[in-house]
Design goal:
Elements: E1 2-5, H1 13-17, E2 30-32, E3 35-42, E4 45-53, E5 62-67, H2 73-87, H3 93-100, H4 104-112, H5 124-134, H6 139-153, E6 156-159, E7 162-165, H7 170-174, H8 178-183, H9 188-202, H10 216-223, H11 231-241, H12 253-263, H13 271-282, H14 286-303
Antiparallel strand pairs: 1-5, 2-3, 3-4, 4-5, 6-7
Helix pairs in contact: 5-9, 5-11, 10-11, 12-13, 12-14, 13-14
C-alpha cells in the first residue's frame, strides 16, 4: 500500500531523519538507504512504515509504504494523522527563521540547516519513556538501553527475512518484570518508574491527552507528580513529545555543550545560562533553537 503525504515547506527530509543513522540499530527508528523505517501501531495492529522523499525542500512530498498493506479507509486516516503529528511543524517556521536572522551565529546555522525539522515520537507516552531512559546517562548508553527495551517488549513485523520492532505499548511495559527491565540495562529506579507510569496509562487512571489542553507549567506539574519524573523529563516531553518549542530542558548536557560552543567560547555553562541566553535571543522558539544548535554540533563533528 502506497500513498503520498505533503508536509509544509520548508522541509529537508534527509537532514530531519538522518540523526537516526548516527547510532547503529537505534530502535525503533531506522534510516537506511534514504528511507525512514519504523513500526507504528494502526489501531492495535503493528504496521511497518517506510518513508522516502519524492520532493524537494521547497516542495516536500513523502512516499509512504506500509506492510502489511493498510487499505481500510479509517486505518489509512489514522495512520496519516499519526504521520502528520510526527512530520508537521507545530510552529511558524518562517517566524523562527526571521528571528534567527537577528543573531549572527544562528543566522549561519539556520541557513545551513534550512528545512531541518525534529521528528516527533508518535505518542506522548513514547516521549515520556524516551526521556526516562535518557536521564543522567550519555545518549549512546540511553539509545543502547532503549533499543534493547524495544527488542524485548515491542510488537514485531517480519519482512524480507528481517524483524522490525514497534515501541512497547503501555500494556506490554505494565506486564514487564523488574528483572527483565534490569536486563536491558535500566536501573531499578527507572524500571519501577516505567512500570508504574505505564500501569497508570494502561489502566486509564491518567489520560495523557489531557496534557494537550494544558499550558507548559501545568504539564510540568502533572508529570512531576509521578515518582521518577522531574522537571528536566517534563520539559523534554514538552518540546520533543508535544512540539512546544517555547519549552527548554536547559539542564540537558547536550544543549549546554552546544550553547557553550556557540555563545560562550566553549566555557562551562549552567542551565540558567542556557535558559537566559536562548530565551533572550529566540523566544518563543528557544526549544527549536536548542535543537538547531545541537544538530549543528553533531553535523560538524560527523563531517570532520
Amino acid at each position: 500500500m502506497h500513498f503520498i503525504i505533503r508536509p509544509e515547506s520548508p522541509f529537508d527530509f534527509e537532514k530531519s531523519v538522518q540523526m537516526h543513522s548516527r547510532f547503529k540499530n537505534s530502535l525503533p527508528d531506522l534510516y537506511e538507504d534514504g528511507a525512514y523505517v519504523r513500526v507504528l501501531h494502526v489501531g492495535r495492529k503493528p504496521v511497518l512504515v517506510s518513508i522516502t522523499s519524492k520532493g524537494t525542500v521547497g516542495r516536500p512530498r513523502l512516499l509512504v509504504d506500509t506492510y502489511p498493506p493498510v487499505s481500510n479507509k479509517a486505518e489509512i486516516g489514522s495512520l496519516k494523522k499519526t504521520l502528520r503529528s510526527m512530520f508537521e511543524p507545530t510552529f511558524d517556521f518562517d517566524h523562527f527563521y526571521a528571528i534567527a536572522k537577528r543573531d549572527a551565529t544562528m543566522r549561519t546555522i539556520a541557513r545551513k540547516l534550512r528545512g531541518l525539522r525534529p521528528v516527533r515520537p508518535p505518542t506522548i507516552f513514547e516521549s515520556v519513556i524516551i526521556a526516562i531512559t535518557e536521564q543522567q546517562i550519555s545518549l549512546h548508553a540511553a539509545i543502547a538501553i532503549r533499543s534493547r527495551l524495544v527488542e524485548r517488549y515491542g510488537d514485531t513485523v517480519a519482512r524480507d527475512a528481517r524483524v522490525f520492532h514497534a515501541f512497547p505499548t503501555p500494556e506490554s511495559l505494565t506486564k514487564a518484570r523488574l528483572a527483565g527491565l534490569r536486563k536491558v540495562g535500566l536501573s531499578a529506579t527507572k524500571a519501577r518508574c516505567i512500570t508504574e507510569f505505564s500501569r497508570r496509562i494502561a489502566s486509564h487512571e491518567f489520560n495523557l491527552n489531557r496534557l494537550t489542553q494544558m499550558d507548559n507549567s501545568q504539564v510540568v506539574t502533572e508529570l512531576t507528580k509521578f515518582r521518577g519524573i522531574g522537571k528536566w523529563t517534563a520539559e523534554y516531553v514538552l518540546v520533543r513529545g508535544m512540539g512546544r518549542v517555547n519549552s527548554l530542558p536547559a539542564d540537558d548536557l547536550g544543549i549546554r555543550r552546544a550553547v557553550s560552543q556557540a555563545y560562550f567560547k566553549s566555557r562551562r555553562v549552567s542551565a540558567e545560562d542556557v535558559r537566559v541566553t536562548l530565551t533572550r535571543k529566540f523566544a518563543p522558539y528557544s526549544g527549536i533553537a536548542a535543537f538547531y544548535l545541537m544538530y549543528h554540533l553533531f553535523w560538524e563533528e560527523s563531517s570532520s
